[in-house]
Amino acid sequence: AVGALFQLRAERPAGRGGLHRGAGLQPRDRRRHLRPGSGVPPGAMLKMATAMAGRWEVGEDAGLHALAKSVEQEVARSSGRTLVRFTVRPSGGPAFACEGFEGMSLKDIAEFGSGEGAELLREYIECACSGVMACSTCQVYVHPDWFPRVGPPGEAELDMLELAHEPEETSRLGCQVRLTPDMDGMSISIPSGANNMFDSIPFE
Q1: Is 23 left (phi over 0), alpha (psi -120 to 50) or beta?
Q2: pTM for the full predicted model
Q3: How does pLDDT run across 92-131, given as a tens digit for each residue?
Q4: End-to-end CA separation in angstroms for the chain
Q5: What are the C-alpha distances in Å from 171 to residues 67, 97, 110, 144, 191?
Q6: pLDDT tens-digit map of 126-173
Q7: What residues does 188 pair with on adjacent strands?
Q8: Among residues 164, 152, 92, which one has the least CA distance to residue 128?
Q9: Main-chain phi, psi angles of 40, to 5 degrees
Q10: Edge-to-edge strand order for the sheet containing 186-189?
Q11: Contact by Cβ (8 Å): 71, 4
Q12: 166, 170, 121: which is closest to 145 by C-alpha?
């Protein structure tokens, strides 16, 4: 995540005179030129990142992951990555438009995307395992016309889809579907339910 922050700083458009302070320096030297205008005082980057990491060893993030994803999207936007648009058809609800940058997964869009489409997708896609492919709660149905472009699931993903709620031939896990430019216009559907095995695990 810290590396993503430095990358954003490095890839921002040039300011007056065509260069920003620190341009042309090696990454290690450029870090010394971060100024309060970046939102982080000099020397405070590591301290901020450590605090936001929370208790990372037990999976308790304090905002660092969300920040990193936000930076990734800003880098994607500033570097000219393709914005891929697609249609989502919930079970029993009206279809809505959604969008994300190439390279983002459907899970990324649901959790960290912006816009009304991402907010709606967030209501329909759950990811109980945080995207490590240990559940099937982010299952989606890819429209048959688009399935060849999205591609079939791998063996490990198939194992999880066997445990999904009413899987179909074109089922995929949202955490494993990453957008590419040729998916622009794609259509996916949301199942009527989800099987969450984590609900049956006795944690106490």
Answers
A1: beta
A2: 0.68
A3: 899 999 999 999 999 999 998 989 999 999 999 988 888 8
A4: 33
A5: 30, 20, 18, 10, 9
A6: 888 888 899 999 999 999 999 999 999 999 999 999 999 999 999 999
A7: 88, 142
A8: 164
A9: -130, 120
A10: 96-101, 83-89, 186-189, 139-142, 171-173
A11: yes
A12: 170
On whether the CB atoms of residues 172 and 153 are closer than 8 A, the answer is yes
What's the CA gap between 44 and 136, in Å, rounded? 40
What six digits make up the tokens of 120? Answer: 């709606």
| Residue 58, phi then psi, degrees to nearest 5 | -120, 15
Tokens found for residue 151: 């591609």
**Token duo for residue 112:** 């960290």
> What separation in angstroms does the CA of 54 have from each of 14, 19, 48, 94?
34, 35, 10, 39
Which residue bears the tokens 């969300």?
Answer: 66
Question: Phi and psi of 77, rounded to 5°?
Answer: -65, -45
Q: Do 174 and 139 touch, CB atoms closer than 8 A?
A: yes
Provide the token pair at 177.
């579907």
Token duo for residue 172 = 């995929």
